[in-house]
Amino acid sequence: MSATAYRGDRCPVSPSNLRGGAAQKVAAKLIADGLLKELLAKGRQNAPQEPRKGLFWYIEQAMKWTYRFPKPIVLEDGRKITSLIQVRDLIVLIPLPHLRNAHWEYATDLIYDAARNGDDIAVSLAYEQLLRALKVEGLL
Q1: Does the pLDDT value for residue 124 go beyond 80?
Q2: Which end of the chain has the smaller Cβ count within 10 Å, N or C?
């Protein structure tokens, strides 16, 4: 998603370590969450079309990943998480089966909500749930 934010056409590029069915599952989740829209690949129209085969995705709206947390989160390995963009980059490294756990699903929902809305309450809620998820995973 970070590479997508810098692309003029807003079309996401799948990470090299995410292939085939896994990439489709991630895309389907992002579409279901309203973070991506499907468009006809032919001509790259700007208006969303009915979902069909041969589509590509684009980010529905600009997301504000630069929001900072009230206090840095220091992971067990010494890394510091200070903003939504760092959380987003961390989440893509977490194995998909772990992300299906309730604590991560709730955390990712709140993180995306904070990036979309950007208000202090949304960022604080995302921060608190992220702390819980990281503790459950043993990363804190």
Answers
A1: yes
A2: C
pLDDT, tens digit, for every residue of 29-52? 777 776 666 654 444 444 444 444
Q: Supply 23's token pair.
A: 């990439």
Task: Give the max Cα distance, the chain.
Answer: 47
Helix ranges, the chain (H): 2-6, 20-32, 84-91, 96-99, 102-117, 120-136
Rounded to an integer, what distance in angstroms lies between the CA atom of residue 132 and that of residue 126?
10
Q: Quick check: 116 and 126 in contact, CB under 8 A?
A: no
Place of tokens 């969450």: 33
Average pLDDT over residues 23-27: 73
Percent composition of the chain: helix, strand, coil (DSSP 3-state, to 5): 45, 15, 40
Classify each residue of 17-46 as buried b or exposed e, where b means 16 or more C-beta atoms within 10 Å of its C-beta: eeeeeeeeebbebbbeeebbbbbbeeeeee
Burial class (CB in 10 A: 0-12, 13-18, 19+), 56: middle
